[in-house]
């Protein structure tokens, strides 16, 4: 057999083996996790985006914080969602949802609350099962099981329970 033909076959085999090797290595390289983690990818299934969002979190899990200083002092609270400047900033309760500037801002141990609107449920610290929709709705609340729909609705309620207010 011609020496040149044997060399061409050997070269072809070499390139096939090289290509397969590169293909195998490329999938290994792609499987490695980036360091540092991508934005929002934190332990405990937490997601945070914004200046100091979820900054103090230690064991809390399943939290979502979007915005500056959102859930910043949360350490153990779980299943909370907050969006808006200083929403749920002092929280350590569970199952709260706050949307709007300073919504549920002072909440510390209250759980199962929903606040939609700037300053909704802002002063609530320990109240549970409250729903506030609208600017300043349930502003001073620390009671339980209250529902307020509309700007300033039940804004002066402090310790009342089982109240419902609709309208301005």
Question: How does the SSE layout of this entry go?
Answer:
Blueprint: H1 3-31, E1 47-49, E2 64-66, E3 81-83, E4 97-99, E5 114-116, E6 131-133, E7 147-149, E8 164-166
Parallel strand pairs: 1-2, 2-3, 3-4, 4-5, 5-6, 6-7, 7-8
Walk me through the structure.
With about 170 residues, the chain is of the alpha/beta class. The protein folds into 2 domains: about 1-35; about 40-168, Alkaline Protease, subunit P, domain 1. It has one helix spanning about 5-30; strands at about 45-50, 65, 80-85, 95-100, 115, 130-135, 145-150, 165. It has an 8-stranded parallel β-sheet with strand order 1-2-3-4-5-6-7-8, with no helix packed on it. Residues about 25-35 have low confidence and may be disordered.
- The name CATH uses for the topology of the largest domain is Alkaline Protease, subunit P, domain 1
Number of strands: 8
- The CATH C-level class name of the largest domain: Mainly Beta
Average residue-wise pLDDT: 85
Structural class: alpha/beta
Tally of domains: 2
Sequence of strands across the biggest β-sheet:
1-2-3-4-5-6-7-8
Shape: elongated
Q: SSE order, as H and E?
A: HEEEEEEEE
Give start-end ranges of low-pLDDT stretches: 27-35
Percentage of residues assigned to helices: 10-25%
Radius of gyration based on Cα positions: 27 Å
**Biggest sheet overview:** 8 strands, parallel
């Amino acid at each position: 057999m011609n020496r040149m033909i044997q060399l061409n076959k050997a070269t072809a085999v070499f390139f096939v083996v090289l290509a397969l090797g590169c293909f195998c290595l490329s999938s290994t390289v792609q499987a490695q996790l980036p360091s540092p983690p991508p934005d929002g990818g934190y332990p405990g299934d937490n997601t945070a985006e914004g200046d100091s969002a979820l900054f103090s979190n230690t064991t809390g899990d399943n939290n979502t914080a979007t915005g500056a200083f959102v859930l910043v002092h949360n350490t153990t609270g779980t299943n909370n969602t907050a969006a808006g400047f200083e929403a749920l900033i002092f929280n350590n309760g569970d199952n709260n949802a706050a949307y709007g500037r300073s919504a549920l801002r002072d909440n510390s141990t209250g759980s199962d609350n929903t606040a939609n609107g700037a300053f909704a449920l802002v002063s609530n610290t320990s109240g549970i099962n409250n729903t506030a929709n609208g600017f300043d709705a349930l502003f001073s609340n620390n009671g339980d099981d209250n529902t307020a729909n509309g700007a300033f609705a039940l804004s002066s309620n402090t310790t009342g329970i089982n109240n419902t207010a609709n309208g301005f």
